[in-house]
């Protein structure tokens, strides 16, 4: 059985997808970009500011699913420019201080709404 997760603590889906799906003991969170859920607008700033917003979005969605960042087992980071890796990584690392998840990071040609970073995660479902 699968359950769609929806919360106002993350940006509303801008297409035919769920913010997250809980299934078989896992939570699969859709790629999050730097959209402020309160305004549905991209936050201004560099990749560090955008990564911080992405991490808050991921955290809010995971919380709504009964989990949290501490339960993330896998993540994928999509960067518009691999030159932003160090700045993204510094912010990302502040949110995963103990047993960080497995991760892939790739540079892509373009991201939704022309943001600088997108991150998706898979976490353990605790409920």
Q: Could you describe the 3D structure shown?
A:
By secondary structure, the chain is an alpha+beta fold. It has a single domain (2-124), classed as 2-Layer Sandwich (60s Ribosomal Protein L30, Chain: A), CATH 3.30.1330.40. It has helices at 47-64, 85-95; strands spanning 2-5, 20-23, 26-32, 35-36, 41-42, 72-79, 102-107, 117-124. The strands form 2 sheets. It has a 6-stranded mixed sheet, covered by helices on one side. The longest helix is centred in the middle third of the chain and has 18 residues, at 47-64. The protein is globular and about 40 Å long. The mean pLDDT is 97.
Summarize the structure.
The chain is α+β, with helices and mostly antiparallel strands and 127 residues long. The protein is built from 2 helices and 8 strands.
Radius of gyration: 14 Å
Helix fraction by DSSP (H/I, runs of at least 4): 10-25%
CATH homologous superfamily - what is it? RutC-like
Enumerate the spans where pLDDT stays under 50 for 5 or more consecutive residues.
Answer: none
Largest sheet: 6 strands, mixed
Domain unit count? 1
Count of individual helical segments: 2
Order of helices and strands: EEEEEHEHEE
Pairing-aware structural class of the strands and helices? alpha+beta
Shape: globular
**How many strand units?**
8
Per CATH, what is the topology? 60s Ribosomal Protein L30, Chain: A
Distance separating the two termini: 14 Å
- Largest beta sheet: strand ordering: 1-2-3-8-6-7
The CATH C-level name is: Alpha Beta
- Mean pLDDT rating: 97
Q: Approximately how much beta-strand content do the residues carry?
A: 25-35%
Question: What is the annotated CATH architecture?
Answer: 2-Layer Sandwich
């Amino acid at each position: 059985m699968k359950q769609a997760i929806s919360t106002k603590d993350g940006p509303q889906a801008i297409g035919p997808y769920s913010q997250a799906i809980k299934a078989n003991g896992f939570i699969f969170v859709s790629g999050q970009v730097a959209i402020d859920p309160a305004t549905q607008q991209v936050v201004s700033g560099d990749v560090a500011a955008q990564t911080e917003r992405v991490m808050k979005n991921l955290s809010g969605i995971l919380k709504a699913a009964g989990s949290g960042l501490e339960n993330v087992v896998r993540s994928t980071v999509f960067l518009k420019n691999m030159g932003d890796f160090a700045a993204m990584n510094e912010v990302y690392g502040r949110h995963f201080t103990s047993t960080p998840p497995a991760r892939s990071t790739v540079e892509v040609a373009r991201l939704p709404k022309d943001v600088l970073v997108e991150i998706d995660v898979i976490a353990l479902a605790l409920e």
